[in-house]
From TrEMBL:
Residues 54-184 form the ATPase AAA-3 domain. Transmembrane segments: none annotated. Residues 258-327 form the ChlI/MoxR AAA lid domain. This is MoxR-like ATPase. Belongs to the MoxR family. GO terms for molecular function: ATP binding; ATP hydrolysis activity. Keywords: ATP-binding, Nucleotide-binding. It comes from the Bacteria. InterPro entries: ATPase_AAA-3, CbbQ/NirQ/NorQ/GpvN, ChlI/MoxR_AAA_lid, P-loop_NTPase.
Length: 334
């Protein structure tokens, strides 16, 4: 009898999720009007949005990173702001500041660009630590304090930070503990040849389709709640934990050769975000339950910035992705 109820439950969850996730196709279609290719990046943006997380995008300039989040903001009918990070930026330039009003002989608050639904932090590694921490605090606490007043940020709130892996001059690398605040770190590559041909044509014509708002902010907030209802079996939870624990204690998982290559493993935030991202991926695929493939689909984006590699690994040209690859191939799939 017990077996039967759980089957019925999954069936109703599945139907609910299928209905709730109907807008995903609409949203993707709308974004594809402007963004050619980059399916992986668009999908990751949606995972970040649905999982109430933030995204760190790494890629050379000109890969439509700014365009992607701007397009998403237009398609969702949300407020968008862009902060270009530079070495002379101050925390107040991000969060806002108190301005003295001579007429009223009092201070008034001027809110900064962080007060938006979608915030693009362009070239986050160009700004000094104080500015980075002001942004990261807002990301974590979802609130900002200006003077002695605290403001809660609007929902949904998604920060997409970009960093350029090419130029390292005049950059301030993000500390490991702060990078951990990002739900996903997505590395994007050049478009394929035929995709780039379409990009050239669209740009030369100068005729980009207008992006229309196809989803309301309310629908997104409802979807964020619905993602929590996606069913995750205990076996999948165990699978996620095995992957995370293998980054910390590789020797317990027959991966002794990885021990000297890892300086630190993924934090508990890693397991929470891996579970959340897997649920979001299932939701995007319009499924009410998580399967091992969902975990494998998001594991690189969730863990690549959460595993510290040693000098030995660097000397052997081993990246955190190679380590994840070995772990995923070794851990038994439920």
């Amino acid at each position: 009898m017990m077996e039967e109820t759980s089957t019925i439950d999954i069936k109703s969850i599945n139907e609910k999720i299928e209905k709730e996730s109907a807008f995903v196709d609409l949203l993707t279609l709308e974004m594809n009007k402007v963004i050619v290719g980059q399916k992986h990046m668009v999908e990751r943006l949606l995972i970040g949005l649905l999982g109430r997380g933030h995204i760190l995008l790494e890629g050379v300039p000109g890969l439509a990173k700014t365009l992607a989040i701007n397009t998403l903001a237009q398609a969702v009918d949300g407020a968008f702001s862009r902060i270009q990070f530079t070495p002379d930026l101050l925390p107040a330039d991000v969060t806002g500041t108190l301005i003295y009003n001579m007429k009223e002989n009092d201070f008034s608050i001027k809110k900064g660009p962080i007060f938006a639904n979608f915030v693009l932090a362009d070239e986050i590694n160009r700004a000094p630590a104080k500015v980075q921490s002001a942004l990261l605090e807002a990301m974590q606490e979802k609130q900002v304090t200006i003077g002695d007043e605290t403001f809660t940020l609007d929902k949904p709130f998604l920060v997409m930070a970009t960093q350029n892996p090419v130029e390292q001059e005049g950059t301030y690398p993000l500390p490991e503990a702060q990078v951990d605040r990002f739900m996903l770190k997505t590395v994007i590559d050049y478009p394929k040849l035929d995709e780039e041909q379409l990009i050239i044509r669209a740009n030369l014509k100068g005729a980009f389709d207008k992006v229309n708002p196809v989803v309301s902010l309310k629908q997104i907030l409802t979807a964020q709640e619905a993602v929590r209802d996606v069913y995750m079996d205990e076996k999948i939870e165990k699978y996620i934990l095995d992957i995370i624990f293998a980054t910390r204690y590789p020797e317990k998982y027959r991966l002794t050769d990885l021990k000297p290559l890892i300086s630190f493993g993924a934090s508990p935030r890693g397991s929470i975000n891996l579970a959340t991202a897997a649920k979001c991926y299932a939701f995007i695929k319009r499924r009410g339950y998580v399967i091992p493939e969902d975990v494998r689909a998001v594991v690189y984006d969730v863990l690549r910035h959460r595993i510290g590699i040693t000098y030995e690994a660097e000397a052997e040209n081993v990246t955190s992705e190679d380590i994840i690859n070995k772990i995923v191939n070794e851990i038994e799939v439920p």
